[in-house]
C-alpha cells in the first residue's frame, strides 16, 4: 500500500490556514453522515445483523462501519492539508489542541447529555443503555475506547477513537517530516498487521474497546494523501479517481462474493484494504478532478449537509431508535414498511435537529477566537 506524495510545491509562513473550504470535502462529509443515518434505520428494521435479512438490493446499507472508515481517512486528510502546505509543521500545539477541543467537545457533551436523558427515560431503546455515574464519566472524558462502559448512544464509540487519533496527529506529522511517507506509513501500519496475524481475535467479531489502534493506519493514510494536494503538477494531475476505483474494485468484489457475515467478521482487514482507495478518492476531489464531480459535491445542498454532518452523526441514533421502536414498529409487521416509514420520518427530523444543534453547539465555537 503506497500513497504517492511529493514535497510541497511552496512553503507558507505562519500557522497553517483552515482547510475546511477545500471544495467537495464538506459534501463527502454530509453524504457519509446521511448514509450512517439510513444504515441505522436499516439495522432496526431488519434484525439479524450481520446477516442481511432485508431485500437484497438494500444490502449496501449494511456496512455502516465503512462510513466510519471514510470519516477517519477524511479526518486525517483534511487536518493535514494545511500542515502539508507548511512543510508538514503543525503550526503550534496549543493552537491545534484548542481548535480540536472547540470543534468536537461542546457538541459532543451536549449530545451526551441528551442521549443520557433519553436512555434513562426509555431504557429499552436499542443501541443505548441507561448510564451510570461511572459510565457517564467515561463517556464525558472520551475514554470509551479504553474503558468499557454502557453506551448511552451507540454511535459514540468512534468519537473517542477519533479523539485519540487527534493526539497521534502531531507525531504523524513529525515522522512524515523527518522520515518521509513510506517510513511513516510502515511505522503505523506494520504493528496493526502483525497484531492481526498474531492475535486473530482482534480481527474477528466486535469488541467494546481498542479501535484507535486498528484505525490509526487509516487516519495516517489520509494524512499522507494530503501531500498530493500540495505536490507538483505531475503528481496532482494523476487520475486519482480512476486509481481509487481500481484500488476499491477488488475489495468491493470480495465483499460481494463473501457476503455480509464474513465481511463484518473481517472488518479489521477490510478497513486496511479500502483505506488507500478512499484516500485516493479524496485526493482526486481535492485536486478538482473531475470538475463535474467536485461541482456536485460543492453544491449548496451538500455544503449545507456537510456543515451540520458532525451534529447529524451525534444526534441521529436516539432519534432513529425512538421513531422506529415507538412510532413505527408497533403499527406494522412488515419490515420493509418499517424501514421505509422510519426513513421518511427520520431524515427530515434528523436534518432539522442537526442544523439547530450545529447552530447552537458548533458554529459559535468554530468562530470563537481567544
Automatic annotation (TrEMBL):
<feature type="domain" description="Acyltransferase 3">
    <location>
        <begin position="23"/>
        <end position="354"/>
    </location>
</feature>
<feature type="transmembrane region" description="Helical">
    <location>
        <begin position="267"/>
        <end position="287"/>
    </location>
</feature>
<dbReference type="GO" id="GO:0016020">
    <property type="term" value="C:membrane"/>
</dbReference>
<protein>
    <submittedName>
        <fullName>Peptidoglycan/LPS O-acetylase OafA/YrhL</fullName>
    </submittedName>
</protein>
<feature type="transmembrane region" description="Helical">
    <location>
        <begin position="155"/>
        <end position="175"/>
    </location>
</feature>
<dbReference type="Pfam" id="PF01757">
    <property type="entry name" value="Acyl_transf_3"/>
</dbReference>
<dbReference type="GO" id="GO:0016747">
    <property type="term" value="F:acyltransferase activity, transferring groups other than amino-acyl groups"/>
</dbReference>
<feature type="transmembrane region" description="Helical">
    <location>
        <begin position="66"/>
        <end position="84"/>
    </location>
</feature>
<feature type="transmembrane region" description="Helical">
    <location>
        <begin position="27"/>
        <end position="46"/>
    </location>
</feature>
<dbReference type="GO" id="GO:0000271">
    <property type="term" value="P:polysaccharide biosynthetic process"/>
</dbReference>
<feature type="transmembrane region" description="Helical">
    <location>
        <begin position="182"/>
        <end position="203"/>
    </location>
</feature>
<keyword id="KW-0472">Membrane</keyword>
<keyword id="KW-0812">Transmembrane</keyword>
<feature type="transmembrane region" description="Helical">
    <location>
        <begin position="105"/>
        <end position="125"/>
    </location>
</feature>
<feature type="transmembrane region" description="Helical">
    <location>
        <begin position="337"/>
        <end position="358"/>
    </location>
</feature>
<dbReference type="InterPro" id="IPR050879">
    <property type="entry name" value="Acyltransferase_3"/>
</dbReference>
<feature type="transmembrane region" description="Helical">
    <location>
        <begin position="215"/>
        <end position="233"/>
    </location>
</feature>
<feature type="transmembrane region" description="Helical">
    <location>
        <begin position="308"/>
        <end position="331"/>
    </location>
</feature>
<dbReference type="InterPro" id="IPR002656">
    <property type="entry name" value="Acyl_transf_3_dom"/>
</dbReference>
<keyword id="KW-1133">Transmembrane helix</keyword>
<feature type="transmembrane region" description="Helical">
    <location>
        <begin position="240"/>
        <end position="261"/>
    </location>
</feature>
Amino acid at each position: 500500500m503506497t500513497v504517492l506524495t511529493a514535497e510541497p510545491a511552496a512553503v507558507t509562513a505562519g500557522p497553517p490556514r483552515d482547510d475546511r473550504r477545500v471544495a467537495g470535502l464538506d459534501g463527502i462529509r454530509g453524504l457519509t453522515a446521511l448514509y450512517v443515518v439510513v444504515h441505522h434505520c436499516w439495522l432496526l428494521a431488519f434484525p439479524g445483523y450481520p446477516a442481511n435479512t432485508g431485500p437484497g438490493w438494500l444490502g449496501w446499507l449494511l456496512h455502516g462501519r465503512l462510513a466510519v472508515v471514510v470519516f477517519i481517512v477524511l479526518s486525517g486528510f483534511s487536518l493535514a492539508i494545511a500542515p502539508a502546505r507548511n512543510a508538514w509543521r503543525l503550526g503550534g500545539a496549543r493552537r491545534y489542541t484548542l481548535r480540536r477541543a472547540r470543534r468536537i467537545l461542546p457538541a459532543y457533551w451536549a449530545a451526551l447529555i441528551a442521549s443520557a436523558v433519553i436512555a434513562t427515560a426509555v431504557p429499552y431503546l436499542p443501541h443505548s443503555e441507561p448510564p451510570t455515574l461511572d459510565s457517564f464519566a467515561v463517556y464525558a472524558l472520551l475514554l470509551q475506547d479504553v474503558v468499557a462502559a454502557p453506551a448511552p448512544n451507540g454511535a459514540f464509540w468512534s468519537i473517542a477513537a477519533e479523539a485519540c487519533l487527534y493526539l497521534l496527529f502531531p507525531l504523524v506529522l513529525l515522522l512524515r517530516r523527518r522520515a518521509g511517507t513510506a517510513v511513516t506509513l510502515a511505522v503505523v501500519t506494520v504493528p496493526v498487521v502483525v497484531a492481526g496475524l498474531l492475535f486473530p481475535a482482534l480481527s474477528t467479531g466486535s469488541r467494546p474497546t481498542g479501535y484507535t489502534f486498528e484505525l490509526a493506519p487509516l487516519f495516517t493514510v489520509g494524512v499522507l494523501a494530503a501531500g498530493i494536494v500540495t505536490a507538483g503538477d505531475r503528481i496532482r494531475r494523476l487520475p486519482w479517481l480512476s486509481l481509487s476505483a481500481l484500488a476499491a474494485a477488488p475489495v468491493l468484489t470480495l465483499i460481494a462474493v463473501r457476503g455480509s457475515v464474513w465481511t463484518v467478521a473481517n472488518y479489521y482487514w477490510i478497513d486496511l484494504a479500502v483505506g488507500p482507495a478512499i484516500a485516493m478518492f479524496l485526493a482526486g476531489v481535492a485536486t478538482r478532478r473531475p470538475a463535474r464531480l467536485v461541482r456536485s459535491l460543492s453544491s449548496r445542498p451538500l455544503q449545507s449537509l456537510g456543515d451540520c454532518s458532525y451534529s447529524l452523526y451525534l444526534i441521529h441514533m436516539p432519534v432513529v431508535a425512538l421513531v422506529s421502536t415507538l412510532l413505527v414498529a408497533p403499527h406494522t409487521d412488515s419490515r420493509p414498511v418499517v424501514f421505509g416509514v422510519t426513513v421518511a420520518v427520520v431524515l427530515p427530523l434528523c436534518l432539522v435537529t442537526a442544523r439547530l444543534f450545529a447552530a447552537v453547539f458548533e458554529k459559535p465555537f468554530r468562530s470563537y477566537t481567544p
